[in-house]
Amino acid sequence: MSDERMPALLALEDGSVFRGTSFGAPGEASGEVVFNTSLQGYQEILTDPSYKGQVVCMTYPLIGNYGVNPEDEESDRPWVEAFVVREACRVPSSHRSAEPLGKYLERRGVVGIEGVDTRRLTRILREKGALRGVVSTGKDGADALVDRARKAPSMEGLDLAGLVSRREAAPWTEGHLSAFSSDRRERKGPEYHVAAVDYGVKRNILRNLVDCGFRVTVLPARATAAEVLALRPDGVFLSNGPGDPAAVTYAADCVRGILGKVPVFGICLGHQILAHAYGGRTLKLPFGHHGGNHPVKDLATGKVEVTAQNHGFAAHPDTFRRGDVEQTHVNLNDGTCEGMRHLEVPAFSVQYHPEAAPGPHDSLHLFDRFRDLIAATRG
Amino acid sequence: MPRREDIRSILIIGSGPIVIGQACEFDYSGTQACKALREEGYRVLLVNSNPATIMTDPEVADRTYIEPVTPEMVIAILEKEKVDAILPTLGGQTGLNTAVKVAETGALERLGVELLGARVDVIRRAEDRLEFKEAMKAVGIDLPRSGVARSMEEARAVLEEVGLPCVIRPSFTLGGQGGGIAWNREEFEEICAGGLALSMVHEILVEESVLGWKEFELEVMRDRADNCVIVCSIENLDPMGVHTGDSITVAPQQTLTDREYQRMRDAAFKCIRAVGVETGGSNVQFAVDPRTGRQVIIEMNPRVSRSSALASKATGFPIARIAAKLAVGYTLDEVANDITRKTPACFEPAIDYCVVKVPRFAFEKFPDANPGLTTTMKSVGEVMAIGRTFPEALQKALRGLEAGRQGLGLDRKDPMVRSREPLPEEEIRAKLATPNADRVFWLRLAMRSGWSAERVAKATSIDPWFLEGIASIVRMEDRLRAFPSTAALPDDLLREAKRMGFGDAQLATLFGEDELAVRAERLRRGIRVTFKVVDTCAAEFEALTPYYYSTYEDEDEVRLSTRRRVMILGSGPNRIGQGVEFDYCCVHAALALREAGYETVMVNSNPETVSTDYDTSDMLFFEPLTREDVLNVWERIAPEGVIVQLGGQTPLNIARGLEEAGVRILGTSVESIDRAEDRDQFASMLEKLGLRQAANGMAASIEEAEAVAARIGYPVLVRPSYVLGGRAMEICYDREQLHTYVARAVEVSAGRPVLVDDFLEEAIEVDVDCIADGETAVVAAVMEHIEEAGIHSGDSACSVPAATLPAAVQDEIRRAALALARELDVRGLMNVQFAVRQGEVFVLEVNPRASRTVPYVSKAIGVPVAKHAARIMVGQRLRDLGFTEERTVTHVSVKQPVFPFNRFPGVDTVLGPEMKSTGEVMGIDTSFGGAFARALLGAGVDLPDAGTVFLSVRKADRGAARVLGRRLIQLGFRLVSTEGTGTALREEGLEVGILRKIREGRPNALDLLKDRRIDFVVNTPSGKGARTDEGRIRAFTVTHGIPCITTLSGASAAVRGIEARRRGGLAPRALQDYFPAAAKP
Q1: Is the peptide bond before B801 cis (omega within 30 degrees of 0)?
Q2: DSSP line for B325-351
Q3: Which of A129, A55, A44 is nearest to A357 (CA)?
Q4: Is the ipTM of this complex over 0.95?
C-alpha cells in the first residue's frame, strides 16, 4: 500500500492556511467552517442535511476507523461541503463496514483534507467564530483560496432548508433496525398520524416517530398550513435543517397557521422556526454547538441530559419575554436556550437532537412526550 | 441539590500497600477525595497502612491513621472517633471489602455510621457473580452464558452447559486473583479448586469463553439526581482473555460506530442503575463479538479503579474528586469542571488526541513464574502516552516503559534492526498465539518477517484497526530504510516519521548515528515538537489548567509566566524497586517549590500517580522520561534547572545525557552520583574517609572468580558488574555454587566482569537517610533491618529507631554517613547502606538521591525531608528550614514490605539480594513489638495468638531456633518440625512433634497445612528451589494465607509482636497524636 498522498489546502477568510493531503474527491469546495467534537458518528454527520453549506472539521483526530455502512446514512447523500480531519483511516475495522471513508467521499464527490492540525483550526474558530473557508486539491495557491473564502456566501440570511428538503409529500414507514432498537418498547394504544415537515430531516427522527407508534407523512419545507392541515394530522413535527432560521419565513408563516390547531413538536431548525412563529427572534452563535456532549438541563425536573447538538443559531431570549412562551431547557455550558414550550397552545421544541445519530440517547423520551401531548390534547 | 449538612465527619478507607492489581492510583483517588471533602468543610479521617502515600501526609486529612486496613481496626477507629459516614469506594477492592466486613458485624448500625456512595447490598450486587447476573438479566443486558458454583461438583455441572474453553472467576478477589481460563478438564479442576479457596465467599463463576472478542470499558458517573455521564471509553488492544490491567489499552474507543457505542453507553447506565450505585464512579466492562457485534457485559466495579485513574488522566476529568463531591450530595451540574472553570462537570469529555496505556511487567524478577498473560493480573505498573495518532501514542508509551525500548523496535533489543532475515516461523507463531509481555513487539517482527496483517489478526485475534496502526509504523520504517542517514531524509518524510512517534534514538539506531546528532539535524530543519493542552473539551472552551503533551503539529499552546521555573522529573511506571515512594518525593518537591514561589513543572508518564494530577504542579507535561522528551520540554519552557534526584533511578539514568545536552541539574552533581556508582572511585573515596568496605574483587572468568573467592573466603556475593539494585545478584556458599553462577553470568554478559564481594554473613544491615545542603548535613534516620544482610534492603523490614544496635555503633554509622555526604557534596538527599558484623561497620552502598525509605522516614520522624531537599536544591539552607539536628523520637516505626507471591503460584517465597516486594506498610507504636505486629497485620500477615507453629530451619540456624522454640512454647504454642530441627529442639528439652518429609509419606507438613492444623510457619531456607520440600511448603502458605516467615530475625521480631498484642492489643492512634505540631497545614 502506498503512503503517498495528493496535497490539499484549507484556507480561511482570516488568511489562515492549513496544508494537508486529499483523502476524498478531488476538487474544491467552500462553506462556513465549523468544528464537531463528537468522538464517533462521522457518517451520520456527513449525511445530516443540517450541514448543508458547511465545511466540517472533526476535532477527534482519528476518523474513518470503522468505515462507512449503509445503515448509518442520515439521508440519501452526504451534505457537508468538505470534510477536514487529522487522520483518515484507510483500513477500517467493523463487521458492518462496506467501504473505507475516503472511497465513500470520493464516490460521493465530497472533498476531504487530512493531516491538518485540526486543533489549531478549532482554536481559531473558537476565538473568531465560524469562518468561511475553502478546501481545494487543485493547483491554486493559498492567496487565491483565501480570496475565494472571503467571497463565499455568509450563513446569515441564507435559506438552505428549501434546498435540502424533499419536493413531494411521502409516507415514512421505517422504524429502527432491529439490532439497534433494543431500547424501544412495543407501542400500545391508537396509531396517531404525524405530519413531519422536512427542512432537512434526519432519518433517525422519522424512525423514532415510527417506533413511537406514529403513522408518518413527510412534507416538503414549503408546505403551507392549509396543506399540512389538509392531512388532518394528530400532530405536526418540525424538523431540523440547515441555514438561517430567519430566512425561512414561509416556514414560520406555515407554523403560525397550525399553532393551536394541532400539537406541534420542533427539533433544531424546527425549534427556531417556532421561535419566529411565536413572534420571537433567533441569534447567530459565535461558533455554534456541534457535538455529542452538551449538558442540557430540563428546568422543570432539574434533570441533566447529555445531548447531541448541531446548530449555529439559537432562540433569542426576547422570545420568552412575551409571557406566553416559557423556556424549558438551558445549555449548562453557555446558558443558551435549548428548549421552550407555549403556555397556551400545545407546542414544544428543543434546540438539540433527541434522536441522537450520532450522540447520546438521553433525550429519546421527548418523542414519548410528543405522543403524550397529542393524547392529552385529544382528551 | 445542596451538600449534606447531616454529616460532619467522614472516614476514607485507603487501599493499603501497593500490590499487583492495586497500585498508587488509589493514593491519587484518595488524596483527591480528602481534598475535595475538606474543601467542603467536612472533618476527614483516613486509615491507610501505606506510608509512601500523599494521602497519609498529616496535612491531607484531619485525622490520619497509619494502621492496618482491617475491619477490626476500622471498627476501633469508629468507636474512638465520632464518625458519621464511611466513603468506601476510593480505596480499591481493599477499601470495599473492608467496608463490607465492617458492615457485616453490625458495627455501622450500632455506631450510627452510614456508607456513602454504595450501600452493602449494592456492593454485593456488583461483586457477587450470581446477583450481578440476575440484576443484568432483569434489565435486559446480555451476558456470557455462565453458572455459579460453590463446590467442585457444582462447577462440573456448569461446565456441561458452557463447554471448554471457559473462564473461571472467583467472587470477591482482587484483580481477578485466582481466576483463569481452562482449556482442558485438568486445568479446569485446578483453577476451580484454587478459585474456590481464594474467594472470600468460596464462590466462583464458570463462564462461556469470550476469548478473542473485543474488550471495552466505560467509566460511568452517577449523582443522586440520577444524572449519568460517561467520562471515558477505553478499548483494549489485547482481546478478551487478558486481564485489562495487563492489556495495552487505548482511549477513547476506536472501532465502534456511534450506534454501537451508544448501545453500550445505554447498557452501562442501565447497569449502574440496576446495581444501584447511588453516587460516584463505576467502571463497566464489555465484550463485543467482532463477527456479529453482539455485546455482552463482563463486569462492573462500583468504585473508582485503576481504569478510572487512567480515564481521569486521559481526559482531564478528575473522577475521584467529583465522586467525593457527589457522595456528599452534590449533583454533577453543581460541580464545576476545574479545567474550563466555566462549564459544569455534568458532561462527557471530548478528547482530541489518542491515549495509549501499556502495562509494565516484572517477570525478570520471578524466573519461575509463567510469563503468559491471562485473566489474573500480573503487571506491576503502567505507562500512559498521549499523541495525535495511535502510532504516535503507542511509540511514546513504549519508549516511556523504561524497559530498554525506544519505541516499536529500532532499539538495542530489536533483533531486526540490521537483519532482513525473517525470524523463524515457529517462534513468531508462539509469540503471537499466547499473550505475553512482548507480544506488541512481535506484531512488528511478524510483519517485518513477511506476515500480512490478516495473518497476524488470525493468530492473535487483535482487531485489524490496531494492526493497521502497527503496519503503518512498519511501512514508515521501510520508507526510512531507503535512505542512508538522517541527513539524507527529505524534510517531509522526517516530519512524518516524527508524527508517527519515531524517536530520535530510533533513527539513531537505524542509521548508526548519535541520538543528539539526529536531534541537531532535525532541529536544524525546524522539525520541532509542539505542545498541546489536555482540556476535556477538544478546544471548544478555553482551558485554564496547563496540562500538556507533545506532538508534531503546527501550533504550540504553551503559555509561560514570568516566574522562576523548576522542572521535576518523575519516576515513570511503577516497577519492583521503584514505586509510589518516588512519586511521593516528586509531589513533595512540587508542593515545597510552589510554596517557595517557583513555578513548578512536572514531567512524568505514570497515570496512576498524584504527581500527574493536573493541579499538583503549575504545569504538567505527560511525557515519557527519555532524554529526547525531557529535552523537548526543557527547551520549550527554559526552567532554571531540573531536579533528578527524587524520581528514583529513572531520572538519574538520563541525568548525564541531559547535562551533556546543556541541561542544568539541580542539587547533587552528576559527578558525585557517578562517584558513588563507579566501583573504583567508590573504593578510593571510602579509603580516603577511612571507611570499611567488604573485601571484593572483579573476575572475567571462572578461574579469576575462584581466585577472588579463595582470597576473601566463602560465602561470597556475586553479581554482574553492569546491573544495579540487586538484579541477578546471588550468594554463593561454596565453589560449586560459584561455578554455576559465574558460568551462566559470563555467558550472559559476554565479556563483562562479575563482581565478587565478601558476603557479610549474619551481619545486621542498616539504612541511613540523610540530607545535606553543602554546609550542614543531618541524619534523618538510622533504620535497622530486621532481616540480616543478604536480603535486598527493599525486601527487609526495618525499624526507626534502631531496635538492637548499641549507641556507639549507631554513632559510628552516623559519622560515616555524614562524612560521605560532605565528601560527595550532597545537595539534597542521600541514602547509605551499612552492614554491621560483630561491632564492625561496613559501607555497602551509597546513593546520593532520595531512597524508597524517604516517605517512611518522614512519617517516622515527623519531618518532610523531601520538601527540605527540594528547597535545598534551589539554594535554601537547612538552618533556614529549621532542620539542623537529627530528631529523637519516643515511638517506634516499623516498615514491612509486601510481596506479590500470590500472583505467581508455585514460585518460592524465599528472599535474597534480588528485590521482589511491590510495596510496604508501616506500623507505629510505643514498643517495637507493637509496631512490628501492626506492620505485619498491615501487610496481611495475621499472627496467631495460639495454635501450632511449624518451625524448620537450616543447619546454621539451629542454635537460634532453640531460643525461638522456647519462647514460643512459653507463649503456649505447640511446635512441630522436620527431623533435623526437631532433633535439635528435643536436645534442648523442648516438646516438639516431628513430621515426615513430603516424599517420605504421610501425614507430612503439607497435609497438616492443608487441614489448617498449622497456624504459623517459620522456615529458613537451606537451598533455593521451588521444587524442594521447603519450597513447596512456603509456596503453599502463600496461596492459602498462612503466615510464613523465612528468617529467624524476622521470626523473633514476630514473637515480640505476638507478645505485644497479648499485652494490650493494637488500639488505633492517629499520626497527628504522635506529632501534634505537624497537624497544622
Answers
A1: yes
A2: HHHTT--GGGSB-TTTSSSBS-S--B-
A3: A44
A4: yes
What residues of A are labeled active site?
268, 353, 355
| Tens-place pLDDT, residues A203-243 | 999 999 999 999 999 999 999 999 999 999 999 999 999 99
The gap from C-alpha B651 to its chain's centroid, in whole angstroms, comes to: 18
pLDDT of residue B171: 81
pLDDT computed for residue B666 by the predictor = 97
Say whether pTM exceeds 0.90: yes
Q: Which of residues 346-365 of A touch B (CB under 8 A)?
A: 356-361
The 3-state DSSP class for residue B666 equals strand
Contacts of A89 in chain B (CB under 8 A): 465, 468
Tens digits of residue pLDDT in A176-192? 765 554 455 556 678 89
- Which residues, in sequence order, are CB contacts of B820 under 8 Å at separation 6+? B685, B689, B691, B830, B832, B843, B846
pLDDT of residue B198: 82
Phi then psi for B789, rounded to 5 degrees? -55, 150
Q: Tell whether A66 is within 8 A of chain B (Cβ).
A: yes
Across B456-504, where does the E strand assignment appear? none
Strand-pairing partners, residue B49, are none
SS3 for B701-755 is CHHHHHHHHHHHCCCEEEEECCCCCCCCCEEECCHHHHHHHHHHHHHHHCCCCEE
Indicate the SS3 state at residue B18.
Answer: coil
Q: For residue A273, give the nearest of A161, A369, A153 by alpha carbon.
A: A161
Of the candidates A40, A61, A120, the beta carbon closest to that of B257 is on A40
Smallest CA–CA distance, residue B289 to chain A, in Å, is 9
What is the residue whose three cell numbers read 536480603? B791
Peptide bond into B165 cis (omega under 30): yes
Quote the pLDDT of residue A68.
98
Low-confidence residues in chain B, pLDDT < 70: 1, 174-176, 721-727, 745-752, 1023-1027, 1077-1081
Residue of A95, A118, A358 with shortest CB distance to B258: A358
Measured CA angle at B467 (ends B462, B472), to 5 deg: 170
Around Cβ B15, how many Cβ atoms within 10 Å?
A: 30
The gap from C-alpha B519 to its chain's centroid, in whole angstroms, comes to: 33
Task: Report residue B1058: phi and psi, to 5°.
Answer: -60, -40
Q: Which of B1047, B1018, B1034 is nearest to B787 (CA)?
A: B1047
The pLDDT of residue A244 is above 90 = yes
Residue type at position A283:
L
Per-residue DSSP letter, B667: S
Residue B31 contacts residue B898 (beta carbons within 8 Å): no
Of B252, B266, B290, the CB nearest to A39: B252
In sequence order, what are the beta bridge partners of B182?
B166
Nearest-CA residue of chain B relative to A39? Answer: B350
β-pairing, B354-360 vs B381-387, is antiparallel
